[in-house]
Amino acid sequence: MGQSGHAVVIGGGIGGLTAAVALHQRGVRVTVLERARSLEPVGAAISLAPNSLRALDVIGLGDEIRDLAAWSGDGGLRTPSGRWLSRSSADAAAERFGGPLVLLHRATLIASLATRLPPGTIRTDAAATLADSGGAGRPARVSTAGGVLEADLVVGADGIRSAVRGTLFPHHPGAVYSGWTTWRVVIPVPGVRFAAHETWGRGRIWGTHPLKDGRVYAYAGAVTPAGGRAPDDEKSELLRRFGDWHDPIPAVLAALRPEDVLRHDVHHIAEPLPAYHHGRVALLGDAAHAMPPSLGQGGNQAIEDAVVLAHHCDDLAAYTAVRQPRTTAIARQAVKVARLSLMSSRTGVAVRDTAMTLLSPAGPALFVRSFDGIADWRPPQTDAVCSEQTPAGNG
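User: That's the sequence. What structure does it adopt?
Assistant: Structure tokens below.
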């Protein structure tokens, strides 16, 4: 699949756009179909670790994003009273993994990716349905309101409720509720100084982090039944759950408006898919391996998927073979971390916090080592464009 080849990307989120840019740079003609009316992402901020920044290096975007790094010095893990359970160091992480951790607004990354695609590549307000997954000697077909598109490769980047996944694997149970919900905000909080931190309570967590533009990214999570909503508004709900926690949490809550708060239940794919491809169709990101945000790796893994998929665009079986073991292991680790951080048992929380305190002298090293095998990932090296002779791999 070379310059005469055509790839259709269903979904204009971070993973889909990264795949589109990576394929375009390898000489593939790309069409991105996004069902929303604009590319403005639903979400707040995203944390990019050295692994995904190296993936972005492949498409020439890594250094631009690294310049947005804001976290420096110490941070760590706290209790609701403010006591430090462990300390972490941005410098130690950067030294071990060869790069910084960058926190930025999702809209910034989306805009940077979109500008690297030719005009007309991205079609918004363009719902799409996979009509035929294709195969050797037969293109895949995607139905849209404007007609049917044929493609040498279709990329299913349509998120956690992926319709493409459902078409490829109709008997798979899909994503399941993880048992907790999240709230996220990005707001200015003038005059507030703080060390970046995550705070673990009993069945509740909170995180506060600075952005390069001076705003604050804050997130919260709590164990709660699926589908819950505040009886009044989500700011009031956050005040009820976190209003008496340590500084700067009260200041952040005071600065936000109800309309600033995004609330979403957390779902993940508990049963791995049989493959990440079928015929000429490949899945990436949440469509393939949705995971809880407890490791901050959901978006990172989608970016990794995208550059690896472009590398293996002629052999989708190789893409599955490379990506499925890694993402399955990281997803399972994210579930374990979520269970630990959101532990509800009073006794269990006491044991957890005591253990973290006893280990605190080695806290930075422990924090850094938890990302061994994740943040030290490096992308495949390639110079060639996708071949025109070899059809996409079949599953």
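The chain has a mean pLDDT of 92.
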